[in-house]
């Protein structure tokens, strides 16, 4: 490593540790330091991955789609029969307070509802009170050049968990299905993996939704393909694309549809909109970022940086 690289790395890590020493985390009704933010080893979130969560972005001090994220969180909780300890408007205030307490204009928020402290058995209703955590931290992004050049992904061998077993619409603390597909991606030296459902249709990626463009038509797998109902996906479908005079159709997709596409792109809170230039050995389009992806990506960045809608 060169001397300047060493210096900038140590500067980055010291500013990170500066932040973590003054970071405030909202835990069950109180803002505490990062060192104090501890949960019990008897919390079923830890023992069984029992709980749900959200990942939210702050742009220029505005919390992008906060309401939609909170609504999805409470829907996830309902689907796993978890009773949140706070009503939605109190949690909304807690999120705003935590953002303010951390003084970051651009940030990533993690909201977690745990099942709470119980016994060593599975019984979720022996946990009297759900735990609530709000973390505000710096954002971890894909490298900038991937947005210009597109990124390569693979197709995971492991299918997405079927809706009948655990609906991927629940953003649960059980992410092992995605994590093991992500490990397949890492083993293949790429950052994302496309997951098929057990019927062989495209569902989504390990942490992003997927779109394809062919002959100017944009499409994305429907909710019944077994996907997380992405907030970024909905924003692209219902706000961003229509504002640009584009339409997005939801339709079942096979892998062959992706291979034959002119463009493929992914959407997610952390990823925003990112083009895919290859799926395994198949180049997509001309092997770069296509014009529709590029237009959407730039429009997305402009929109959230000038006026990130909170609803
Ligand atoms: N699918 C999965 C499995 C995810 O975890 C995520 C969130 N990272 C997404 C899709 C994208 O959803 P959103 O746009 O709401 O972040």
Distance between the termini: 45 Å
The count of domains is 2
Here the CATH topology of the largest domain equals D-amino Acid Aminotransferase, Chain A, domain 2
Poorly predicted runs: 1-11
| Rg on CA atoms, Å | 20 Å
CATH top level of the largest domain?
Answer: Alpha Beta
Strand content: 15-25%
Topology as H/E string?
Answer: HEEHEEHHEEHEHEEEEHEHEEEH
Shape: globular
Largest beta sheet, briefly?
Answer: 9 strands, mixed
Which CATH architecture of the largest domain would you pick? Alpha-Beta Barrel
Find the count of extended strands (DSSP E, 2+ residues): 15
| Secondary-structure content class | alpha+beta
Bound molecules: 4'-deoxy-4'-aminopyridoxal-5'-phosphate
Q: What average pLDDT do the residues reach? A: 94
| CATH superfamily heading of the largest domain | D-amino Acid Aminotransferase, subunit A, domain 2
If helices are DSSP runs of H or I spanning 4 or more residues, what is the number of helices? 9
The helicity comes to 25-40%
């Amino acid at each position: 490593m060169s001397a300047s690289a060493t210096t900038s790395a140590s500067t980055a890590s010291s500013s990170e540790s500066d932040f973590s020493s003054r970071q405030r985390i909202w835990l069950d009704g109180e803002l505490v330091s990062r060192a104090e933010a501890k949960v019990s080893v008897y919390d079923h979130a830890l023992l069984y991955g029992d709980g749900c969560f959200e990942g939210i972005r702050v742009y220029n001090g505005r919390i992008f789609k906060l309401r939609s994220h909170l609504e999805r969180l409470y829907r996830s909780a309902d689907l796993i029969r978890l009773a949140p300890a706070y009503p939605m408007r109190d949690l909304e205030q807690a999120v705003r307070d935590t953002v303010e307490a951390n003084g970051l204009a651009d940030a990533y928020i993690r909201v977690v509802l745990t099942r709470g402290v119980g016994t060593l058995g599975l019984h979720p209703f022996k946990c009297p009170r759900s735990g609530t955590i709000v973390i505000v931290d710096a954002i971890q992004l894909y490298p900038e050049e991937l947005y210009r050049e597109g990124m390569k992904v693979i197709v995971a061998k492991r299918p997405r968990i079927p809706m009948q077993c655990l609906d991927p619409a629940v953003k649960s603390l059980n992410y092992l299905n995605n994590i093991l597909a992500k490990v397949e991606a890492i083993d293949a030296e790429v950052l994302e993996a496309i997951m098929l459902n057990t019927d062989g249709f495209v569902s989504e990626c390990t942490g992003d939704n997927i779109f394809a463009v062919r002959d100017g038509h944009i499409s994305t797998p429907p909710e019944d393909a077994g996907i997380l109902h992405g907030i970024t996906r909905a924003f692209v479908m219902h706000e961003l694309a229509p504002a640009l005079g584009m339409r997005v159709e939801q339709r079942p997709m096979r892998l062959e549809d992706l291979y034959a596409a002119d463009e493929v792109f992914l959407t997610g809170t952390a990823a925003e909109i990112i083009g895919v230039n290859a799926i395994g050995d198949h180049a997509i389009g001309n092997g770069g970022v296509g014009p529709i992806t590029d237009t959407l990506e730039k429009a997305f960045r402009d929109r959230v940086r000038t006026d990130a809608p909170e609803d």
